[in-house]
Amino acid sequence: MNDPILQVIDLQKRFPVYGPWGRLRKPKYFINAVDHVFFNLFEGETYGLVGESGSGKTTTGRTILGLNNSDGGQVIYQGVDLMSLEPREFKQYRRDMQLVFQDPYSSLNPRKRVGALLEEPLIIHKIGNQKERQEKVFETLDIVGLQPEHYFRFPHEFSGGQRQRIGLARALIINPNIVVCDEPVSALDVSIQAQILNLLMKLQKELKLTMIFITHDISVVRHISNRIGVMYLGNIVEEALTDDLFLKPLHPYTKALFSAVPDFLKDPNQKSRKILKGEIPSNAMQITGCPFHHRCPQATDFCVAEKPVMREIEPQHFVACHYV
Predict the structure, then answer these.
(1) CA nearest 112: which of 192, 174, 166, 182?
(2) Which structural domains are found in the chain, ordered by start?
(3) Is pTM beyond 0.85 here?
(4) How confident is the model over 149-187, as pLDDT tens digits?
């Protein structure tokens, strides 16, 4: 296998929670949103990051891109640790890594026309003159399936699917190497979801993009990803090639996550579903041992005391569980 284009090594992110005095006093506690995350991203692939809401997927993506300051770990891109760079030094790498936001409407300035929104990244990175930038905008609109007349419209004049195409165009207009898609289809109708997913896969082949695809939708991540990392409470608990993971999930959490997707054709009464007991612990808790031991049906005292490390159980199939 080729060398990874991006390496995430022991990435950590904590958010302080303050009391009534705010920042005048020390934080009351910290929320561990990303807790020692490791994974590699290879050129031309789509790495799916899947898990429940609150598992740290979005924070992981935003921290990799420098939108959140990390509290530890490394993000290695082209031999450079991005987390060690000053903001001015980081700017030259922002052009290579872009983000497609979950909510296209809130991420687009309602007072600007689409043409100005798409031209802004080119202006920031000082790419081309005014005529060249305008031509690039029309070219990118065509790539994502929008019409030239859309250049002059405001965001509120578009449907949800069209706004997501605009968000995608804004990310692609400066020709990045890596695109982080933060649940780009979660707010769309099923038919529109399929259009956006097919567009992403088409553009990936044509533009040779490398993607991190963040979602909680199992069917979506299966459709678009080459490899999948399963997150729980800020930890990646299982990672494998997509087909291998769906054919043979090994971690108890992954099994429960997959069984939560109804399959009325094979099991009309849903008797085979694995229902997890209890609630997800708070990220503010200082959890010892395995992060999943509160809800795991096979947890023992050893799971409470010792945190499992990621082990390669089968070729390219890694699991963080003592008993797999």
Answers:
(1) 166
(2) 6-96+176-319 (3.40.50.300)
(3) yes
(4) 999 999 999 988 889 899 999 999 999 999 999 988 877
